[in-house]
From TrEMBL:
InterPro entries in the cross-refs: Ectoine_EhuB, Solute-binding_3/MltF_N, TAT_signal
UniProt keyword Signal, yes or no: yes
Transmembrane regions listed in the UniProt entry: none
Source lineage: Bacteria, Bacillati, Actinomycetota, Actinomycetes, Kitasatosporales
Name of the featured protein: Ectoine/hydroxyectoine ABC transporter substrate-binding protein EhuB
A family per Pfam: SBP_bac_3
Keywords noted in UniProt: Signal
Domain Solute-binding protein family 3/N-terminal: 61-291
Length: 305
């Protein structure tokens, strides 16, 4: 998602044309779910690490803040909530004694404010762990590590494989609202005001297919999943972006309110069990993740970077 991701306050130019019927249907269903689940969750005590886990067990449901991005968390054509984060949430919260997950859709940039305003219990959107975000929320350890990739026109006629290539060829670049790829492109030398910011990956694919931009920058898994059914576009090979002149490995994780350390720690314990058993990869593989994108990074490491 994730998210997903980086500076969450960027809105430059928005492309809104969606042509994939299944995605449109999913987003409509997603909006209906959000309307049904927009009430505030019960606040939990922050003493001794919080008591939210006990409350979730008692009510039997956890509300997930979701940004509606393939493959991190979305509604499929049958109207079912799915994606790597919701499926992982079902597995871990089930082990913690919470039977159901309920999505609360919102824009990616509203996930952290929504979490801290108690609109939902946890962010489950593949959100990248960054030092800025670590000042606002606490993260579980990452469930994946992700390089970047581009969606380009079929055959990659401009030979765009890295941000340096795109800068050298004066390529017109698009990326998503709140994506870390905004920072990655700026670090490579692009001016922020020259980036085309679109609402999601479907709009990014449309922009490439129509020739309005030369590439759409996203996580490697997003690029693979979105471009694989296109007759006009393809994804490039994954690459690691440079930040401050150094390769930057981003990791995505679940986020919790700072007071809820007991819930975060319990979640982490189950996540590590799934990782050791290989079940984590089995959950994530159907959503396009590869073994190379599994990780042993910790939130503590990423919060320090």
């Amino acid at each position: 998602m994730a998210a997903p991701r980086g500076n969450d306050a960027h809105t430059i130019r928005t492309e809104r044309r969606h042509t994939r019927r299944s995605v449109l249907a999913g987003l409509a269903a997603f909006g209906a779910l959000g309307a049904a689940g927009c009430t505030r969750v019960a606040s939990a005590s922050g003493e001794n690490g919080g008591d939210l886990l006990e409350r979730l067990r008692a009510q039997g449901v956890v509300r997930l803040g979701i940004a509606g991005e393939v493959p991190f968390g979305y509604i499929d054509r049958d109207g079912r909530l799915t994606g790597e984060a919701p499926e992982l949430a079902r597995a871990i919260f089930g082990r913690l004694g919470v039977e159901r997950v309920q999505p609360v859709p919102t824009e990616f940039g509203s996930l952290i404010p929504g979490l801290n305003a108690q609109q939902f219990d946890v962010v489950a959107a593949g959100m990248y762990v960054t030092p800025d975000r670590c000042e606002q929320v606490i993260f579980a350890d990452p469930d994946y590590q992700m390089p970047d990739a581009f969606i380009v026109r079929k055959g990659n006629p401009l030979g765009l494989r890295t941000y340096a290539d795109a800068l050298r060829r004066h390529a017109k670049i698009a990326t998503g609202t709140g994506y870390a790829q905004i920072q990655h492109a700026v670090e490579a030398g692009f001016k922020q005001n020259d980036l085309v910011i679109v609402p999601d990956q479907v709009a990014g694919l449309n922009a490439v297919e129509s020739g309005r931009v030369d590439l759409f920058a996203a996580t490697a898994v997003t690029a693979r999943m979105v471009a694989r059914g296109s007759a006009k576009a393809e994804s490039t090979k994954p690459f690691v972006a440079l930040v401050d002149g150094k390769p930057k490995a981003d990791g995505g994780a679940f986020a919790f309110r700072p007071t809820e350390t007991r819930l975060r720690d319990a979640f982490n314990a189950e996540l590590h069990k799934l990782r050791r058993s290989g079940e984590l990869y089995r959950i994530m593989r159907p959503f396009g993740f590869t073994k190379a994108e599994m990780t042993t990074l910790t939130a503590k490491e990423l919060c320090r970077r």
